[in-house]
């Protein structure tokens, strides 16, 4: 009978907290959006599923060995942990607090104590350590994205890089927004938090995850969910802004066909970009370095088998682990916070401002170029959200003029936006990292 | 508090400024590179670039092509058998 | 000349022990069974080869840095290890014994001492640490299996889940068998050992490896070899039992065609299963969670590239490392033990009892349903051993009635058996882990 | 010793019991789910489910298909050439 | 304004050293050779790119956390590191020197101190730790190469193994060369360095990397670059030597067609080789063990999906990381040394001597066999450099006799050379490791 | 110094010697193995070994084949449509 009691008291239904229940619903919601509404399913299916796993009561999949040890709270283990952490109270909350604030060596010692007591890191926590805390997963995704990116349209019209620059204003405006929310006392974000939230406006998943894992890992779940959700919502978010800021005449502008770009230019571009990064912003070197490496593998034509693997088997494997790891940060105690609402709000503002700035920049460039050569609709593609934003530009162009195919023209600012937000990420890491 | 505001403001000014400076330099460097390449190593007539296209193709498209292939073959074979 | 002597005294032929020689023969035997007799070759080729590598004298491929340091037994190293382990004797056996019993931090310190003295973990030992000790390899295999599993037949006839439940009796009966062997003094198994041995009866490789790595890692080699060998032997083990327990009339029963199962049902099933696991048995969450995740990726239809990778590149890579890691536990000192004989004996008993219970349950269900709708031959498929056991059911059905195709009907209990043994695994981990 | 026996026995009783309870609940939940799905989101006529079949296909089969394909095309081409 | 100054003083252009500038040029040069001249691009593209990344000023991608901490040289961090390393001076150079010479536990402690101070391992340094310092990447490449190797031609004519033995003389002659350079005071190589340099003559990339990572990790960059460059240069290096050492009549010799080799022989060969390694040279067990494992997977015919993965997805993934990791050792302070010139010089000598010995051995075998059955041109293929060297033999054969196809005959010594240099590697590790 | 020389020399002598001894034994063992196999398990007539060839094929060749395939099908289809 005692065993039966053990089973019962250790069951999920006996232990589930309201927060966990709610987070499981959110996980199911993400799965619904991904599967039924096609919201960036490659990331949101693993993130949603990981979120459910992370909130299974008593399973501790998203917790470290020490957190699991504290959860089960055997007095002698708590006592040892308290002495390792050099605090007098053996209260679980105090121990967790001291543990999260402790230095690397104390961390390591506490972890060994928990292991000696028979506790181990949860599966998702291990995935998080290997994939995200080490920084490797977003970088490998970036390598794969590089190997999938064709810079041809950008090279045919390098000036579209300015559109990719302008659209990053969404990032920095959002930083100010987060600062304002803090100064008015509505939320409480540090400058690191603000920078990580801002990067949502980069509309680039791996960049957002990379920056957040460095600057504000505790916000990772909310920021990643916001970034991918809004990327999926680009076809809803962008059109009204684009329509409001352009005239029908502007939207009708047909752009001249892009010139042919030679193989050599495509090979040299990632190298030129890399050297510029090396000379100007070393902090962007991991992100843009891996991106350039992937692109060079793609274009050089002599390592096709590596390029194929980078954009298939490897990126798929990494995506699975990255998604589950992000999901591990959807545990109730981390996600169900008023901060999350702030992040969701600021994120959509970031997308909106970025879109608007891209369009306005394109209008300005069009004016300067005589008023009839650049369709301002391609400016919104500068936020990145590849290739969704470019498709939105194309769609709106076709609405105004059924012969107006903007897709290739919008691909230039689209990939420029990836570079732009990686540069912005480097600046953030430099200044507040 | 004021500190946070000034940090945020300077992050915006310098961050946005740096992004523009960087991408401007990239525009210049890219333009220069393209000019040099076109001058000293003019590209041959644009090949259909079949291979690159294939690589960039999303999986979905590949599957679609495969299906087309099967459809085409089935048709060809039916024709062949009906002779 | 001294060098020549070094070469000679360090050669394998000079140092090989009888046990190592015998284990190399066993490794060759496993390769023979895998290659010539087609015994689960995907696992037994790597396991057999890993077993040979693990027994190469002086190479120490399966040993940790400390074990290698002790093997070469330089007095000053032994002295330092003894002081780290806090024992007075510097005898190699005493040191190894203290090392294996030491806590995590002492373990780490001893390992650093061995590295300072120039010794390092063997290749296979590292594979074992990463693939099995971390628990990740069996879970990823389970994810891949989930992505390869079609729950259609099960959803068309959910009652076949009972067959998957009944067949797990083999597991628990075997636990009692191991207990009996210990009580009668024939062997000496702890309750953890007994539970791990029992899980052989689950006829599911990754589940057996996962449970054994948690409950009785020292038995991993024998249990994995038994599990995979008996799974390969299912076509020999099951038919006599099935024939003995059924009448010719029963074996002739034709089952009505399965109803069509909609895509939505297939998408929702892994989620329903996951929620049930979350509510009732959190200890089964890693295994069944990854299984459900793989299945959801397969069925949801929006992440085909992840699903493809999970069931191809990723599962293949993991299988290679898992097999070699299991092989590392075929070192002579661990495998050549009377316990191994006990495990082999109990394992086959487990398969037999599981098969019998599945068939008897199917007979009972058939009786209750009027006696002419469920062919008891499909009950044996409840042990899992996917898809071998279902094929055996089909084959015996055809023998009695050449028009009787049971394959799809047997696939239901077959995959139910996978769920059943994962649930049994969760109970074991909860109670004796 | 007796302890081991009682542990083994209770493991069997509760373990087997729990497996049955769990799978019974799964039968119920699955049945319910199927009923709801069939009621509120009736499936369209069974499609040939080509794609799923393809995924589940073992490598061997895929190779076989490829070979068939080649054979079929070869035949088609021979026919074509012989015209 | 202060921020602007920060950006400027932290930029690459402000901090770049002459050495870093020069190494970036070398990286670009390697990319040029790989992409335009087709010099072993699968390795030299990642190595060259990794070399550039490693030399980005201030990015610290190739440095450990401690090295990065020392580079930024905050006084309090230096002080703590000095006390951990138990030295009185807090001068960066002294700390780095003490750190590199410290034992494993001090290393670990210093690493924790650096992490507490906010520094972390560079991306490439982490890749190096996981891929090369652990030894795993070269071993997995060897497994993949095994899975791609057809031993048929070797089995049809096992005597060609002698050619693979003779060509390894280049390895050992080069060791003596390195010793001579040291004794004459031109360079300063230890016997470990000499052995690692010699292995360049094995003309086998993964073997060279594996041995160097064990014996002389500080030379890894130079040795890997030399090994892969000279392998690419085989069509230039070998022909003059081959022509000089053979007569026109010898080059005209037509060899009789190879006998058919049965599947069973091909399956048994890797096992025979493994057992010989196990009995004679356990130190070659990791390298040749993985090679044999790959080959057995290929030939056994029952694990095709594992073999496919080993020779595609897995080897590609590992190649990417291996290349970047080797590139991380192209940092200016490690590569720009007079030793590198010595290594480049000795490497080419090694290739030359190996080629010559292979040809001379083939001449001798031809003489002993009656003078008209073995074309000495196949001897040069014994250096390995698979399959380039065999193609060179074939090309020279065709020059002398347009009907003389030597390719298959040269594949025997070619793969024998792989085994030969792996055996030589085992001897090196045994004697000086 | 002398020590280094003697180490280098002995490494050469024993290393090279060992390589020869090892490969000689491998020649003998392989020959023996082949003899035993040919005697007790004579191979059937040499099959075309299609499968192994396929595995060894470099990626380039595979692509080439695919292109051929596409070309062939295109031709077949054109023929078919032109009927
Ligand atoms: Na962007
Ligand atoms: Na089972
Ligand atoms: Na060689």
What does the model show?
The complex is a heterohexamer, with three copies of chain A (433 residues) and three copies of chain B (83 residues). Chain A is mostly helical and 433 residues long. Chain A contains 26 helices and no strands. Chain A has helices spanning 2-9, 12-15, 18-36, 41-54, 65-72, 75-84, 92-101, 104-116, 123-133, 136-148, 152-156, 161-166, 169-183, 191-198, 205-215, 220-232, 234-245, 248-252, 263-280, 285-300, 304-311, 313-328, 332-335, 338-368, 388-400, 407-432. The radius of gyration of chain A is 24 Å and the shape is elongated. In chain A, 67% of the residues are buried. The model of chain A has no long low-confidence stretch (mean pLDDT 93). Chain B contains three helices and no strands. Chain B has a domain at 1-43. Chain B has 83 residues and is an all-alpha fold. The model of chain B is unreliable at 45-70 and 79-83 (pLDDT under 50). The chains are: A mainly alpha (433), B mainly alpha (83). Chain B binds chain F through residues 51, 69, 72-73, 75-76, 79, and chain F through 63, 70, 73, 76-77, 79-80, 83. Residues 202-204, 383-384, 417-418, 420-421 of chain A line the site of one sodium ion.
